[in-house]
Design brief:
Blueprint (H helix, E strand, L loop, with lengths): L1 H49 L1 E6 L14 E5 L1 E5 L11 E7 L2 E5 L7 E2 L5 E11 L10 E12 L3 E12 L6
Antiparallel strand pairs: 1-3, 2-7, 3-4, 4-5, 5-6, 7-8, 8-9
Protein backbone atom coordinates (compact mmCIF):
# COMPACT_ATOMS: atom_id res chain seq x y z
CA UNK A 1 0.00 0.00 0.00
CA UNK A 2 2.81 2.39 0.90
CA UNK A 3 4.67 1.69 -2.35
CA UNK A 4 1.49 2.22 -4.38
CA UNK A 5 0.75 5.48 -2.57
CA UNK A 6 4.37 6.60 -3.13
CA UNK A 7 4.12 5.77 -6.87
CA UNK A 8 0.89 7.78 -7.25
CA UNK A 9 2.36 10.80 -5.43
CA UNK A 10 5.56 10.65 -7.53
CA UNK A 11 3.59 10.36 -10.79
CA UNK A 12 1.57 13.45 -9.91
CA UNK A 13 4.73 15.32 -8.81
CA UNK A 14 6.63 14.49 -12.00
CA UNK A 15 3.62 15.52 -14.11
CA UNK A 16 3.46 18.86 -12.29
CA UNK A 17 7.19 19.40 -12.71
CA UNK A 18 6.98 18.69 -16.44
CA UNK A 19 4.08 21.13 -16.74
CA UNK A 20 6.13 23.83 -15.01
CA UNK A 21 9.11 23.22 -17.31
CA UNK A 22 6.84 23.45 -20.37
CA UNK A 23 5.21 26.66 -19.10
CA UNK A 24 8.66 28.18 -18.48
CA UNK A 25 9.80 27.26 -21.99
CA UNK A 26 6.70 28.88 -23.52
CA UNK A 27 7.15 32.01 -21.38
CA UNK A 28 10.77 32.37 -22.49
CA UNK A 29 9.81 31.92 -26.15
CA UNK A 30 7.04 34.50 -25.82
CA UNK A 31 9.45 36.91 -24.11
CA UNK A 32 11.84 36.49 -27.04
CA UNK A 33 9.06 37.34 -29.51
CA UNK A 34 8.09 40.49 -27.60
CA UNK A 35 11.75 41.54 -27.36
CA UNK A 36 12.01 41.19 -31.16
CA UNK A 37 9.02 43.48 -31.63
CA UNK A 38 10.39 46.03 -29.14
CA UNK A 39 13.79 46.00 -30.86
CA UNK A 40 12.21 46.52 -34.29
CA UNK A 41 10.18 49.53 -33.13
CA UNK A 42 13.07 51.06 -31.16
CA UNK A 43 15.38 50.69 -34.15
CA UNK A 44 12.80 52.32 -36.41
CA UNK A 45 12.31 55.20 -33.96
CA UNK A 46 16.04 55.83 -33.59
CA UNK A 47 16.63 55.83 -37.36
CA UNK A 48 13.66 58.11 -38.04
CA UNK A 49 14.67 60.52 -35.25
CA UNK A 50 18.11 61.20 -36.76
CA UNK A 51 16.91 61.19 -40.39
CA UNK A 52 15.27 63.91 -42.46
CA UNK A 53 13.29 64.45 -45.69
CA UNK A 54 10.31 62.43 -44.48
CA UNK A 55 8.08 60.94 -47.18
CA UNK A 56 4.87 59.07 -46.37
CA UNK A 57 2.74 57.10 -48.82
CA UNK A 58 -0.62 55.35 -48.64
CA UNK A 59 0.51 52.53 -50.97
CA UNK A 60 3.09 49.80 -50.33
CA UNK A 61 4.83 50.32 -53.67
CA UNK A 62 7.78 52.71 -53.56
CA UNK A 63 6.95 55.98 -55.38
CA UNK A 64 9.38 57.54 -57.84
CA UNK A 65 9.52 60.80 -55.84
CA UNK A 66 10.63 59.11 -52.62
CA UNK A 67 13.22 61.82 -51.95
CA UNK A 68 10.55 64.56 -51.92
CA UNK A 69 9.02 65.43 -48.51
CA UNK A 70 5.36 64.42 -48.18
CA UNK A 71 2.93 64.42 -45.25
CA UNK A 72 0.32 61.77 -44.42
CA UNK A 73 -1.99 63.35 -41.86
CA UNK A 74 -4.51 60.52 -42.40
CA UNK A 75 -1.93 57.76 -42.16
CA UNK A 76 0.11 55.76 -44.63
CA UNK A 77 1.60 52.27 -44.87
CA UNK A 78 4.99 53.27 -46.30
CA UNK A 79 7.46 55.70 -44.76
CA UNK A 80 10.76 56.78 -46.32
CA UNK A 81 13.45 59.22 -45.21
CA UNK A 82 17.05 60.20 -45.75
CA UNK A 83 19.25 58.41 -43.24
CA UNK A 84 21.67 60.13 -40.88
CA UNK A 85 24.67 59.66 -43.17
CA UNK A 86 22.74 59.66 -46.43
CA UNK A 87 23.34 61.79 -49.51
CA UNK A 88 20.38 64.09 -50.19
CA UNK A 89 21.19 64.11 -53.92
CA UNK A 90 20.97 60.28 -54.15
CA UNK A 91 17.37 58.94 -54.01
CA UNK A 92 18.61 55.32 -53.97
CA UNK A 93 19.95 55.55 -50.41
CA UNK A 94 16.62 56.32 -48.73
CA UNK A 95 15.62 54.17 -45.76
CA UNK A 96 12.11 52.80 -46.30
CA UNK A 97 9.76 51.08 -43.84
CA UNK A 98 6.48 49.55 -44.92
CA UNK A 99 3.67 47.41 -43.60
CA UNK A 100 2.92 44.54 -45.99
CA UNK A 101 1.72 40.93 -45.62
CA UNK A 102 1.35 41.13 -41.81
CA UNK A 103 5.00 42.17 -41.34
CA UNK A 104 7.12 45.30 -41.11
CA UNK A 105 9.78 45.46 -43.80
CA UNK A 106 12.86 47.66 -44.15
CA UNK A 107 14.89 48.74 -47.17
CA UNK A 108 18.18 50.66 -47.03
CA UNK A 109 18.55 51.06 -50.79
CA UNK A 110 15.58 53.27 -51.66
CA UNK A 111 13.09 50.41 -51.82
CA UNK A 112 14.96 48.14 -54.26
CA UNK A 113 15.12 45.25 -51.75
CA UNK A 114 13.16 44.69 -48.56
CA UNK A 115 13.74 42.44 -45.55
CA UNK A 116 11.27 41.66 -42.78
CA UNK A 117 12.31 43.10 -39.41
CA UNK A 118 9.66 41.36 -37.33
CA UNK A 119 9.78 37.73 -36.26
CA UNK A 120 7.47 35.20 -37.96
CA UNK A 121 5.69 34.77 -34.61
CA UNK A 122 4.60 38.43 -34.71
CA UNK A 123 1.55 39.14 -36.88
CA UNK A 124 0.88 42.80 -37.61
CA UNK A 125 -2.81 43.37 -38.38
CA UNK A 126 -2.66 47.13 -38.85
CA UNK A 127 0.12 49.70 -39.02
CA UNK A 128 -0.02 53.37 -39.95
CA UNK A 129 2.52 56.19 -40.21
CA UNK A 130 0.97 59.61 -39.51
CA UNK A 131 3.40 62.26 -40.75
CA UNK A 132 3.13 66.03 -40.35
CA UNK A 133 5.61 68.86 -40.88
CA UNK A 134 7.63 67.07 -43.57
CA UNK A 135 7.51 69.92 -46.09
CA UNK A 136 9.89 72.84 -45.62
CA UNK A 137 8.46 76.21 -44.69
CA UNK A 138 5.29 74.87 -43.03
CA UNK A 139 6.47 76.10 -39.59
CA UNK A 140 6.02 72.61 -38.11
CA UNK A 141 8.73 70.39 -36.69
CA UNK A 142 8.58 67.09 -38.65
CA UNK A 143 7.15 64.24 -36.62
CA UNK A 144 5.81 60.77 -37.19
CA UNK A 145 3.24 58.89 -35.14
CA UNK A 146 3.44 55.12 -35.64
CA UNK A 147 0.54 52.92 -34.59
CA UNK A 148 0.88 49.14 -34.60
CA UNK A 149 -1.82 46.57 -33.85
CA UNK A 150 -1.38 42.81 -33.96
CA UNK A 151 -0.76 39.55 -32.14
CA UNK A 152 2.37 37.84 -30.91
CA UNK A 153 2.95 34.36 -29.63
CA UNK A 154 4.08 30.85 -30.17
CA UNK A 155 1.60 28.38 -31.63
CA UNK A 156 -2.11 28.88 -31.82
CA UNK A 157 -2.84 28.56 -28.09
CA UNK A 158 -0.42 31.24 -26.83
CA UNK A 159 -1.31 34.50 -28.58
CA UNK A 160 -1.40 37.94 -27.06
CA UNK A 161 -2.86 41.00 -28.73
CA UNK A 162 -1.01 44.30 -28.61
CA UNK A 163 -1.64 47.92 -29.54
CA UNK A 164 1.40 50.19 -29.66
CA UNK A 165 1.82 53.83 -30.50
CA UNK A 166 4.94 55.94 -30.53
CA UNK A 167 5.75 59.46 -31.66
CA UNK A 168 9.09 60.39 -33.17
CA UNK A 169 10.22 63.96 -33.79
CA UNK A 170 13.06 64.81 -36.14
CA UNK A 171 16.17 65.86 -34.25
CA UNK A 172 17.25 68.52 -36.72
CA UNK A 173 15.32 71.73 -36.11
CA UNK A 174 13.08 72.44 -39.13
CA UNK A 175 11.05 75.52 -38.25
Amino acid sequence: VAVSLFAVVMTISVGSLLSLVDANRKAQAFNSVINNLNFALENMSRNIRVGDTYHCSTTTSVPSNIDTPKDCPNGGVLFAFEGNKGDITDPTDQIVYRFINSHIEKSIDGGATFISITAPEVTINKMKFYTVGATSGDLLQPRVVMTVQGTAGIGSNIKTSFNLQTTVSQRVLDL
